[in-house]
Design goal:
The complex is a heterotetramer, with two copies of chain A (304 residues) and two copies of chain B (248 residues). Chain A is of the alpha/beta class. Chain A is built from eight helices and 16 strands. Chain A has one domain (8-297): TIM Barrel, CATH 3.20.20.70. Chain A has helices at residues 80-91, 107-116, 145-158, 174-183, 222-235, 249-258, 268-271, 275-289; strands at 8-10, 13-15, 19-21, 44-49, 62-65, 68-71, 98-102, 124-128, 163-166, 188-191, 195-198, 200-201, 206-207, 213-217, 240-242, 262-265. Chain B has 248 residues and is α/β, with parallel strands linked by helices. In chain B, helix 4 packs parallel to helix 5 (188-200). Classes of the chains: A alpha/beta (304), B alpha/beta (248). Bound molecules: flavin-adenine dinucleotide (2 copies), flavin mononucleotide (FMN) (2 copies) and FE2/S2 (inorganic) cluster (2 copies). Chains A, C: It is found in: Cytoplasm. Chains A, C: This is Dihydroorotate dehydrogenase.
Chain lengths: 304, 248, 304, 248
């Protein structure tokens, strides 16, 4: 038996490992029942949820780009009531912490959502203020410190759960945003959401995506994500969920070294649906090789 | 999930159509016609998997038939026999075989999944296939030779069989014979018009849809469509649908 | 003979084609003598030049990332006097417009450089206010509209040549920067410079790059670059040099459709030193196929 | 620039060392020992070319010898005979052969380029090679068998030849024989210490440096180094330098 432990704590939540899933890439967990091992997952971060059900964007919703993908799903979801009534009870059986990612059209909606989700079966909420694919809400709150702070405060006022703010990479200075989040009372930050990108079909001379632009994710963005985690680690003391192009344990380790307390796996789930299992296994191996016994011995240990 | 090994890989159609025979070391007996797999294009350049219908399956061998379209299939065409290839599947819901006298209707590459369907009907199905021209008929004709009863053919330019689209020829066929179900796979416009004809003739029609997919598991919502019964995911709830559910 | 013409004009400069080279990726042109065809190149944009010679950064200067590369060269260059006295006379023989990319530590230095370069043999100057790899000058001017405007004005005051401002992608709103550039009197904009990124060696637990962070370029950034060109095209009416991950004619065409009046080829030169030649050839082919005779019929023709 | 075809590709050393024989359809007669090529790892996953020394060249065939280190070489090791591979080169400046009695000194993979150098010296060179242990000697020994006069060997663990580093053995060799030039290729620390010994013995020493490279043409400045004569580019002004120019 390996003596290496991947157990950790994040914003007061006990986790079996620091490996989570990124919102929107793992459905509600159920879709990956055949591939994932929920006992090795730190948390399932479910698809972005809104007050009312949403249909998302029309037309083509994904495009592949070099080492990455663009998506403009546009927050399609069955609405928070359906989540609470139908889905949460179903996925409770995995005994895996559930973090609900929420999006609002207004500051008040974030508060309302936080209140509705202040229930058993939800371990934390993640505020999506950085979705590039919807007109209202979404990214508007994520690129301006003041409106982001308002969203955080609205959520904090309405829930006893840890509030995680998901930062947009589409900003001049991510450290400024992170500091504003810390000051507004967020319990943790997660980063990065997708970079805004575009693809054009040169045969039709039209944008590939129905929404013209979309969010770039996958290995292509990893260097940017890693840099931002490192910048944010130096700027604030809140726990960080690092994500952006993590495909394997090596990538995850880079994020831990840069200062991430947990990592989230996104696009990798589409490529290898058992990515989280492999990362768990290989992360353990790495710690063994390095003669480390606790994942926390790795976090922030970049030697500069 | 299976790590397959390429056993055969050859160009079977003049128009960049390839047949890929993969040994997936697993029994394929239960694979339904109309289901698909998410294939990872080998060699690491291509990020997302590519959805391809199961064209045929026997023993532990899976046959895929694909046309070179873009980056992924171009790259795929370069892989050689003996190479490993990762396969996720079978995914989605296949055709519902319950019927007495089936007519299969295929257009272009949509003919591929009808191969396994014809086999599952053990010779009792007829097929109507449409292609642009006689050249494009080069690969389907030999494949269907002994596994269907009657073969009807249309080409857009009349270079083989009837001239025109399958949907134009379909009323005639449906009137002549008493089919009780038709199974359509091809370009969306062809499925739509064929389904219309079927509905007009009071015959149940199943169609197989194509949408861009990332996960293939119902998680990413790349492939959702509006149906008569609400939003559905092509990868999970389809790709085969009863035509009246999706064309309405 | 093909009747397709790639000849065009950019900010008043006559170009044999809209295909340029990106600063820092094509040396001074000479290094590519065996591979390039200077008669098909629109312009050579030479390596970033400063008043005094610079040694650049220590340690490892490049790292490969998925579909991209990071660099932290740090503006190593022999200084503007050496450029003027030794290099420009040498590369004049190519009969290809030379654009000099300049960087200053202060606003005044940009002015001084512009003045020194207001000579025959220089067709335009490109202001690099977006180099992520140097402490002073560099990016600081490129993320804040006011200081960027000051740099543009200083340059304009000191030269009769067209002044091109090179925009940084590391900003919240590239359109705001472009508008500020237009208002400050820039003659053209080029975009994008590199995105700031990072890579970590998990064996040594150290950053791969000597400068810790570096600039991300190559196919990985193309979706972001393309989106920014499209955004800027909608925001201003100045001519645009589009760049960022262009590897082939298809990529270049996407940029033209999005609104770039010219494109610059960067990282591709390292992969295929004759990239510009191939792009010229394939761009002509594409226009022929589309029954277009003039490259300008393509520019900004995205159908949305 | 040449599109080569892989003619032979095999593991020649237990420790992940491979030999790649590429037909570049061009005469290699003028390729100098110490020059290198920028090889594009086939199949599109790897963006930048990889610099590899010319280990040997004859007719239109180019031999490269490499060790699997990271992503690029791992991928390269998977390419098969018959595949096309793009080569840029020969690049840089090779060794200056002018001398009467040369001693070649190689460590690890640095032994590879000394192969062509030994051939260019047509049997009159001696070689001193150092590796970690006897296993690592498996590939160089047979290759150098008939192309050098004397072979001296060191291993770090003493499992073959002298125990220790080449630089420790070098003084003895230089004292015993009257070499007038030594050519060193290997890890930087080994080249530095060997160069020091040479300088002490008043013998000219050339070394071959390694730096990360993007362009290989002197354009990108990835590979600049500080020398006694100002800043130089390893790709363009090197990779071979007179030791006193770079170790000072
Ligand atoms: C359920 C299903 C079954 C399919 N079965 C077959 C088959 O048996 N034979 C066959 O030749 N083709 C089939 N297709 C279409 C096939 O998936 C595409 O031709 C292929 O993905 C094109 O990839 P590419 O990289 O060459 O093209 P690109 O255009 O470069 O691909 C870019 C992106 O768009 C997606 N894409 C492009 N065209 C399609 C399309 N028509 N449908 C879905 N996604 C697309 C790709 O998967 C990729 O993500 C099927 C599609 C689906 C959804
Ligand atoms: C002039 C020259 C000649 C060389 N000749 C040989 C040879 O004959 N045989 C051999 O086995 N190796 C040789 N090397 C080293 C070889 O280039 C590297 O081992 C190889 O690039 C590693 O690539 P990778 O993708 O496997 O490693 P990674 O570590 O994944 O590569 C990441 C990046 O770093 C670069 N890199 C990594 N290690 C080195 C290194 N030691 N030197 C330069 N760049 C490096 C890579 O090119 C790539 O850009 C030579 C290097 C130079 C500069
Ligand atoms: C298809 C898709 C859907 C996504 N949906 C959401 C979402 O609903 N809410 C959210 O905060 N982030 C969403 N994201 C962003 C991811 O959670 C993650 O931040 C991003 O993809 C970067 O990680 P990756 O490169 O590992 O995928 C989505 C990403 C993808 C690819
Ligand atoms: C090695 C390297 C050096 C560069 N040096 C400069 C520079 O001196 N000045 C500048 O404005 N941009 C510089 N750039 C940025 C490029 O000009 C270009 O904006 C960027 O690389 C994006 O284009 P690409 O993806 O086609 O490379 C450099 C880029 C690279 C890769
Ligand atoms: S492909 Fe992901 S939901 Fe259908
Ligand atoms: S590798 Fe580009 S200058 Fe040497």
């Amino acid at each position: 038996m390996s003596s290496v432990s991947l157990k950790t704590e994040f914003a007061g939540i006990k986790l079996n490992s620091p490996i989570m899933t990124a919102s929107g890439t793992f459905g509600f967990g159920e879709e990956f029942e055949d591939f994932a091992d929920f006992s090795t997952l730190g948390a399932i971060v479910v698809k972005g949820t809104t007050l009312e059900p949403r249909n998302g964007n029309r037309g083509i919703r994904i495009a592949e780009t070099p080492a990455g993908m663009l998506n403009c799903i546009g927050l399609e979801n069955p609405g928070v009531q359906f989540l609470v009534n139908e889905i949460l009870p179903r996925i409770g059986k995995y005994n895996c912490p559930i973090i609900v990612n929420i999006s609002g059209n207004t500051v008040e909606e974030y508060g309302e959502l936080a209140k509705i989700l202040d229930i058993d079966g939800v371990k934390a909420i993640e505020l999506n203020v950085s979705c590039p694919n919807v007109k209202e809400g979404g990214i508007a709150f994520g690129v301006e410190p003041k409106s982001m702070a308002a969203v955080i405060k609205a959520a904090k006022k309405n829930t006893g759960k840890p509030v995680i703010i998901k930062l947009s990479p589409n900003v001049t200075d991510i450290a400024v945003m992170a500091k504003a989040a810390e000051n507004a009372g967020a319990d943790a930050v997660s980063l990065i959401n997708t970079l805004i990108g575009m693809a054009i079909d040169i045969n039709t001379c039209k944008p590939v995506l129905g929404n013209i632009t979309g969010g770039l994710s996958g290995p292509a963005v990893k260097p940017v994500a890693l840099r931002m985690v490192w910048q944010v680690r130096k700027a604030i003391s809140l726990p960080i969920i690092g994500m952006g192009g993590i495909m394997n344990a090596q990538d995850a380790i880079e994020f831990f070294l840069a200062g991430a307390d947990a990592v989230a796996i996104g696009t990798a789930n589409f490529v290898e649906p058992d990515s989280t299992v492999k990362i768990y296994r290989d992360l353990k191996k790495y710690l063994e090789q390095k003669n480390l016994t606790d994942i926390r011995d790795l976090i922030g240990k970049l030697r500069t | 999930m299976a790590d397959g090994v390429i056993k055969r890989h050859e160009k079977i159609g003049t128009n960049d159509v390839y047949l890929l025979d993969i040994d997936i070391s697993a029994n394929t007996e239960k694979f339904a016609a109309g289901q698909f797999v998410q294939l990872q294009v080998p060699d690491g350049e291509i990020l997302l998997r590519r959805p391809l219908s199961i064209a045929d399956a026997a023993g532990s061998n899976l046959i895929l038939i694909y046309r070179v379209i873009g980056k992924g299939t171009k790259r795929l065409a370069k892989t050689s026999v003996g190479q490993k290839v990762s396969i996720m599947g079978p995914l989605g819901n296949g055709f519902d075989l319950a019927c007495k006298k089936p007519l299969l209707v295929g257009g272009g590459l949509g003919i591929a999944p009808l191969l396994l369907l014809a086999k599952r009907f053990a010779g009792k199905a007829d097929i109507l296939m449409g292609c642009k021209n006689v050249e494009e008929m080069d690969w389907p004709l030999p494949l269907f030779k002994n596994i269907v009863k009657n073969t009807f053919i249309t080409t857009d330019d009349g270079s083989m069989g009837m001239r025109g689209f399958v949907s134009e020829y379909l009323p005639e066929i449906l009137t002549a014979e008493s089919y009780d179900k038709i199974f359509v796979c091809g370009p969306e416009i062809m499925m739509r018009s064929s389904a219309e004809v079927a509905v007009r003739h009071g015959i149940i029609c199943e169609v197989s849809l194509e949408k861009r997919m990332a996960c293939g598991l119902g998680a990413c919502l790349s492939c959702t469509i509006e149906t008569k019964c609400g939003r559905k995911k092509v990868c999970k709830n389809g790709p085969v649908f009863e035509s009246r559910e999706v064309f309405f």
